[in-house]
Amino acid sequence: MRTRTATLLTAATFSLLGATVLTGCGAKDDKDDKSGPAQAATTAPPEKVLSTATVTKPPTLPPGKNVSTAPSTSAPSGRPAGSDGVPRLRPSAQAGGLVRLPDGPSDVPVDPGEVRSPANNVLVAAYGAAGSGPRSVLFVGVDGMTGIDGKRLEHMVRGMVDHVNATEGGVPAGLSMKGYDPGPLGGTLECVPAQDARPAAICGWADRYTTAVAYFDRLSADQAAVKFKAMRADLEK
């Protein structure tokens, strides 16, 4: 009887141990199954997601045209009368029988006063009897006026006097501008002697649309007034 009982206990013990071992293996296999896919998900490359956003194409430009956001840095230059017919200063190749010099001033020797682009346009030029020089006339003018600007003309004449004093010699003191016939373009035209030792003159004109000043080398004030009127007919159109 005792022998049979011991045998049964031994069989039950082996049976319990076998179940425990199987349960442990099953749990391990279950952990391996769960860890396997998780690791694979972290190493697999991400799938490409197709965008549904609308692509906006840039506007089609005519050939040779480019889009630019940079501000314009072009300097004012002479231009003919606009479509409204208002007279403008133009860099004529010839003015009053004189030829424009290609190596004229590279800067503005006379302050033209307040200039607002594109309403106002500054023209600086040098003229001589021949294209190779020497210079006979230094011209500075501004257009885009809305009326005769006497203060601007006075300002520009004073500027030319300062320029001549610094580069050509002393302008006689105590002299006043003398009025001359402005010609068919109207407005005012004035001149004053600019040298004591030799003939030279500073002249200026002002009308409703333009104001200009010029220094004439080797011409008296009376002669410069005639020449300036002739030049004006070629420069203001």
From TrEMBL:
This is Lipoprotein. The lineage of its organism: Bacteria, Bacillati, Actinomycetota, Actinomycetes, Kitasatosporales. The keyword Signal applies. Keywords: Signal. It comes from the Bacteria. Residues 1-27 form the signal peptide. Residues 66-76 have a biased composition (Polar residues). Residues 26-106 are annotated as: Disordered.
